[in-house]
Amino acid sequence: MNKKIVPFWEEAYREYEAIAFSNEPNATITEFEKKINTQSKVLDAGCGEGQNSIYLAQKGHYVDAFDLSEYGIEKLKYRCELSNTQVNAFVADLTTYQFEQYYDMIVCFGALHFVNKNAWKRFIINAKEYTNIGGIHIIQIFTDAVPAPEDIAPFAVGLAKDEEIKELYTDWDVLQFKSYVFEDEHPNFPKHLHASNKIVARKMR
Ligand SMILES: C[S@@+](CC[C@H](N)C(=O)[O-])C[C@H]1O[C@@H](n2cnc3c(N)ncnc32)[C@H](O)[C@@H]1O
Q: Is 109 a pocket residue for ligand 1 (Cβ < 6 Å)?
């Protein structure tokens, strides 16, 4: 029988002492969190084990966070308990996600390229609709400017073209856009490169 291949982070999500990506929130989130009011409504889509969600909740925001991974969500809940932090975390799929409320900030880090292009574009279009005027999106997606490394290649079905994400935000104020290549490393896998786009945009009207 074929063994189901699972992405490397699933292992780390199961280990409560391990860190899959980072213990620290992403620097772009810490930078732009300052631009939203306290007690804002925030969504972290594809939140993983939740370092960004927990940071945003500790800053006083109401945070909804979802991920496809049950283990990721269980670990996020465990980390919330440990730190006495309130995050509304639940399992959901980006490809079928139905918005039920409006948000002031939507963040999605490193998750969109794991669903096909039509699905991530549809998610962003819906997310834009369900963002309050003045609200901010912070989106990071891998691009095909370098090939996907072997460990994520089977899952990276929706790599963007460089700058493609920008096309979805022409009607918003783009506060920051970065296209970059960075070196990454995980346990049991050699150093490798990722090509990435990161966009921060504000809904103007
Ligand atoms: C590289 S991790 C990033 C996690 C987190 N955003 C962070 O910055 O640490 C990618 C995440 O996307 C999630 N993911 C992949 N496909 C998904 C889908 N269809 N719906 C929701 N989450 C998904 C994975 O389970 C994983 O937690």
A: yes
